[in-house]
Design a protein that fits this description.
two-stranded antiparallel ribbon; Aminopeptidase; Glucose Oxidase, domain 1; 2 domains; 23% strand; alpha/beta
Length: 552
């Protein structure tokens, strides 16, 4: 082997060794950590009480964790479902604890609650009948509940074909016709001459009437039209574009149940529906179309038996995020967000989903970390940066509490250094049944390599747990990176790290109870998380972000 071959061989061996030790290549190789990091046990961890971080972390005890969880995961809290009584009881328990610790509140003296509201809307009944013939949503037509007002029945003995539904000084389909309380049918686009010039713009460029359907629907609403039928040449494509949004309830931030729309109700209809409405009036429509080609509006009243129900189910889901914080010293405007969701699945009949691991474990751990950080304040060792603790509601409904917070943050997002998220840390999965001193780490290097290395360093120095990055892999079929509250911070470009013990047979079952929690393991994980938070809050320089594309 010549010298250059020997050098290439050594470099290759170094890369392979790095992969074996860390489970990943460095960011230069465009790959996130996805292996297992085992600490160097030849180096003893810090156990000296003169070390402030060690002494503070030592206060995180299995006994206190058990006390918190025994309350949070009890039947009396009824599964802590967002919007239900049990969640309110859990929120009050957390509030009492952080108030007694002395954490500050951003929302008023001793309040600690950020009120959260989401509005869900879905079609309850949606059918269309023309001359007794039934047409179906997602097959023959498409319409979105959030963009329409609730009408149980829309019935009309006629439909007005109104050309393009345009009302402009140069051209108006509404001239000399009253559409108050009527069903109208329109084409997309606008009239153009044989040379392709618009009768509105007087040149080859199309007007905003072609670009923005909202303008037509607002005009129809102002004219009093009850329903607008929009002829769609490729209804299959339109349906496919919207199908996924209709298969689950539409979600809006805030309480919008009584919102009044500026647009008329509308439906995109197939050419089959248009033909059924036109019926024997096809000659009248052809004549009208020829006039439209000359820029002359020509509405046609079509006699037909039209019935449609547009009954909506609209619900407002309300809850509260619980927020307490410790103000920093020299860098108090920079904030570390430490989070856990405290909601679960509630109950079904007499069966209660107590959610001990998911996520009374994270919620209890957060209380202990908050207590450890506040102990530093009591010892006149306030952290340099602000540390905010947030217990999120609505996670089980789709990460709603954290989504609400990142849209309406109580601490500016640009000042948020990192999110440290704790979700399910009280159990041992099958892979580690013989080694409880582990934790899965997800997302640590997705945005900031500094965050990843910081967690590795404090683990080596203090905790020496096995750090498993299996679920951090971009190709992880479970997609856990996208399934807990940290992701809403990551979407905003904020470095985030997520601690997780893996799944088990009791996940999302009524058997996820306190008696199966490993409190010693949970305390050890809590101490590691504390060390990461404390280092983030006190290191001289803010961690640097190296944004990578966030993938849906």
């Amino acid at each position: 082997m010549n010298p250059s071959e020997m050098m290439r061989f050594r470099m290759k061996c170094s890369v392979i060794l790095l992969f074996i030790l860390t489970g990943s290549l460095t960011p230069a190789f465009s790959q996130y950590s996805n292996g297992v990091s085992i600490p160097d046990k030849s180096k003893a961890p810090v156990t000296d009480n003169r070390d402030l971080a060690f002494r503070l972390a030592s206060g995180i005890s299995p006994a206190t964790l058990r006390d918190h969880m025994t309350i949070l995961a009890s039947d009396s809290l009824e599964g802590r479902e967002t919007g239900q009584r049990g969640l309110e009881l859990a929120a009050e328990y957390i509030r009492r604890n952080i108030r007694s610790m002395g954490l500050y509140s951003k929302t008023g003296y001793e309040n600690y609650f950020q009120k959260v509201a989401f509005t869900f809307s879905r079609w309850m009944d949606n059918d269309m009948y023309i001359n007794g013939k039934r047409f179906r949503l997602l097959w023959d037509y498409i319409t979105m509940p959030e963009e329409n007002e609730n009408f149980e029945i829309i019935a009309s003995p006629e439909v007005i074909f109104l050309g393009y539904g345009i009302d402009s000084p140069a051209y108006s389909d509404y001239k000399d016709i009253n559409v108050e309380g009527k069903v109208i049918m329109i084409n997309k686009g606008e009239p153009v001459d044989k040379k392709g010039n618009s009768y509105i713009t007087r040149n080859s460029g199309l007007s905003e009437w072609s670009a923005d359907m909202t303008k037509k629907l607002e005009t129809a609403k102002s004219k009093g039209a009850k329903l607008v039928l929009i002829i769609e040449d490729d209804i299959k494509k339109k349906v496919e574009e919207k199908r996924k949004f209709l298969l689950s309830p539409f979600l809006e931030l805030g309480s919008t149940k009584d919102k009044v729309l500026k647009t008329a109700n509308y439906v995109y209809i197939s050419s089959d529906i248009a033909r059924e409405i036109i019926g024997a009036n096809d000659k009248k429509i052809l004549k009208a179309r020829k006039k439209l080609e000359k820029g002359k509006p020509s509405p046609v009243i079509l006699t037909t038996d039209f019935i449609m129900n547009m009954a909506k189910d609209v619900k407002v889901l309300e809850g509260q995020n619980v927020i307490g914080y410790i103000e920093g010293k020299s860098k108090k405007d920079e904030v570390i967000i430490v989070s856990a969701h405290y909601d679960h699945l509630g109950k079904r009949g007499d069966e209660v989903f107590n959610g001990a691991d998911d996520n009374a474990s994270g919620s209890s751990t957060l209380l202990e970390i908050a207590q450890a950080c506040q102990q530093a304040v009591l010892e006149s060792q306030r952290p340099e940066r602000t540390i905010a603790f947030i217990w999120f509601c609505g996670e089980e409904k789709g990460l709603l509490g954290s989504q609400f917070y990142t849209e309406f943050p109580e601490f500016p997002l640009e000042n948020t250094v990192a999110n440290v998220n704790v979700d399910m840390v009280g159990r041992i999965d099958e892979k580690y049944k013989d080694n409880p001193n582990y934790i899965y780490v997800i997302g640590s290097d997705r945005i900031s390599q500094d965050l990843h290395q910081l967690n590795e360093d404090v683990n080596q120095k203090y905790s020496q747990l096995t750090l498993d990055y299996t679920y951090n892999d971009e190709k992880d079929p479970n997609r856990y990176y996208y399934r807990s509250d940290h992701y809403n911070f990551a979407k905003k470009g904020i470095p985030a790290i997520f601690y997780f013990n893996g799944t088990h047979d009791d996940y999302h079952r009524t058997t996820d109870d306190v008696d199966k929690i490993e409190f010693d393991k949970m305390a050890n994980v809590g101490k590691l998380i504390f060390h990461t938070v404390w280092e983030l809050a006190n290191r001289p320089e803010r961690i640097k972000s190296n944004p990578k594309e966030t993938k849906e």
